[in-house]
Amino acid sequence: MSEAIECDVVVLGLGPGGEHAALLLAGKGLDVVAIDERLVGGECPYFGCVPSKMMIAAASTLRDARRVGDLAGSVEVSPDWAPVAKRIREEATDDWDDQVAVDRLVEAGATFVRGRGRITAPREVTVEGQAYVARRGIVLNTGTTPSAPPIDGLAGTPFWTNREIVKVTEVPESMIVIGGGPIGCELAQVFATFDVEVTVVEVADRIIAVEEPEASEVLAKAFADQGIEVIAGATITRVEHAADGFTVVLADRALTAQRLLVAAGRRNNLPDIGLELVGLDPAARVLEPDERMRVAEGVWAVGDITGKGAFTHVSMYQADVVVRDILGEDGPWADYRAVARVTFTVPEVGSVGLSEDAARKQGIDVVTATGDLGSRGWLAKEDGLIKLVADRARGVLVGACAVGPSGGEVLSMLATAVHAEVPIATLAEMHFAYPTYYRAVQPVLRALI
Known about the structure:
Layout: E1 5-12, H1 16-27, E2 32-36, H2 43-47, H3 49-66, H4 68-71, H5 82-92, H6 99-108, E3 111-114, E4 117-121, E5 124-127, E6 130-140, E7 144-146, H7 162-165, E8 174-178, H8 182-193, E9 197-202, H9 213-226, E10 229-232, E11 236-242, E12 245-250, E13 254-257, E14 259-262, E15 266-268, E16 294-296, E17 299-301, H10 312-326, E18 340-343, E19 348-353, H11 356-361, E20 366-372, H12 374-380, E21 385-391, E22 396-404, H13 407-420, H14 424-428, H15 441-448
């Protein structure tokens, strides 16, 4: 083994949060060693948020064109996946090459090391026989990997995950999606818009089961209107593959399709990274951080592995907290009261804070109210809803859900309200521009008073 190299901080894993922390710390003059065996930037820019939202933007354009006949005349639409694949390859991912991100790290002053890193002692990470000793500590951002459920016959078949589907150059004639969560629903709808026959299979009793039941109902109706079959509460007994495609055998029927997308969760990349050498459980499924993102002496964790929300914005938020702590600054520290999330389906499903069920489980004196999209929804012929979850005793919102064409944007005001604990009485008497989607929030607020 080569002689150990000393530095200030080792960042192990360069997803959005790890990359962000490395850039900021190096920019402050610290000696940073940034390590990853895969692409710098992680899942988001290459296999997740960025390419999938390019797909969604293309599908939304098709959808809008098809609505011309209802609202504005006539138009002929011919779906073509080639421009989508070209944009993903050339504009989003540089053909899945991270050189620009690597250069950005190096230009900021960090040392980049490509390879699998492992903790080999407190404040020490080793990559292919070379040890790096961090005077201040280690930042972990090892991320996640797509996981496949233990379905008989699935292993070894050429099913897609999000990592394969973003690389497709031609759409199939038909596709089964196992998993009705955000990723499964977004991609199912994209491909259905490109005239693929899509069936979504979900073991829970509804799609997007982490969201409010009312949101699931609206999205299920949108899927049905688009011709997407949703089978919820399903029991999958086995998967079969042959030259002509896949068969997914359920308890009561068999489904066939040319392609199979598995979007049934992810697993944290925590095994065999040396957690036991810093006093952590090597079998841990998540690492529970304190308010400064510390998980052990001289070890911080950010991103999916903390279990605080598998979102790019959460990872980068946590990275900011870590940087402040390493630099000896005085907060602010991590606060998850108002974590926002958006499922970019049509309609969009934006949520923040606690759901009604989660709030009740916390013992909060809950009051809720719902409403539709009001005048803007009627004018644009769009369905959707607003649901607000309030703490009756304190008179503030603890959660909210906005479903509609701009659900993620309407969410911004609701996230502010939850985070800042703005009194509901104050919110209800604001000026709400007419006719906007966010104006639909006002009558729901007034129903809580």
